[in-house]
Write a structure and sequence with these properties.
mainly alpha; Arc Repressor Mutant, subunit A; Four Helix Bundle (Hemerythrin (Met), subunit A); 2 domains; globular
């Protein structure tokens, strides 16, 4: 009987190890695809071919399909009528909805931070705001510090459900392309707005912190609209290969 029990235990451990291996492979596939989307290796509207992904990651189709389903579930990928998936492409309406929701979440985060942040967290936010004001006028540098600043506000809010909502929202923001801090004058405006938000949090003024954070996102949305308009204008000026060929004929 002891031998039988030993055999069952080995079988159970074998199945458990196999399950853990499958889980690690799935996470690797998911993280690799998510990273590629964040880094712009897959552009909005671009088709994601399963076979090429399998070759790239040297992984079988099953975990790749599951990873693609997970990315589709959080809105980064869209299923196409003819089959397959593409990287989500947000139109003006979707961008407007995204920023409207972000405005609500950022306002709530700042308001909750004014209520719940520890003195250490407030001091950290003050330090981060000061660091931003001392940085060179470089959009890429400020983009990194901007993300860090907002991350600490979310954490200072001490609300796990808000944190989860914000993390999900920011996955979609990655699809929008160039940072709004690349708009002329946006860095200076953002630094000022961050400083005002920190002062409201430090003063424990929940309503003012909420209002200022919402205003900050409205300002970011206006900058985003400028970037989108600029991109559309550039695209409209590009010659269309098909038309050029017809003209020659």
């Amino acid at each position: 009987m002891a031998k039988a029990r030993h055999t069952n235990a080995d079988g159970g451990n074998g199945k458990g190890a196999a399950k853990q291996t499958r889980g690690r492979v799935l996470e690797h596939a998911y993280d690799a695809l998510l990273g590629a989307i964040r880094q712009g290796k897959f552009q909005p509207g671009q088709r994601i071919p399963e076979n090429e992904i399998c070759e790239w990651l040297n992984i079988s189709r099953t975990p790749i399909r599951e990873a693609l389903r997970r990315l589709q579930a959080i809105g980064l990928l869209e299923h196409q009528p003819g089959g397959g998936v593409t990287v989500s492409l947000h139109d003006f309406r979707a961008v407007s909805e995204l920023y409207a929701f972000r405005e609500i979440l950022e306002g709530a985060a700042a308001g909750l931070a004014a209520k719940h942040a520890s003195e250490t967290e407030v001091s950290l936010l003050k330090a981060l705001a000061q660091i931003q004001s001392d940085l060179p006028d470089d959009a890429h540098i400020h983009e990194r510090e901007n993300k860090l600043f907002h991350k600490h506000i979310y954490e200072a809010a001490h609300n796990r459900f808000l944190l989860k909502s914000v993390e999900s929202l920011h996955e979609s923001i990655f699809l929008l392309g160039r940072t709004t801090l690349s708009v002329p004058g946006r860095i200076k405006t953002s630094i000022r707005e961050h400083g005002e938000i920190v002062l409201a949090i430090a003063a424990r003024d929940q309503q003012r912190a909420d209002d200022l954070a919402r205003r900050h996102i409205k300002s970011a949305y206006e900058a985003r609209v400028l970037l989108i308009t600029e991109a559309l204008d550039v695209a409209a000026r590009q010659p269309i290969a098909g038309n050029a060929q017809v003209a020659k004929v």
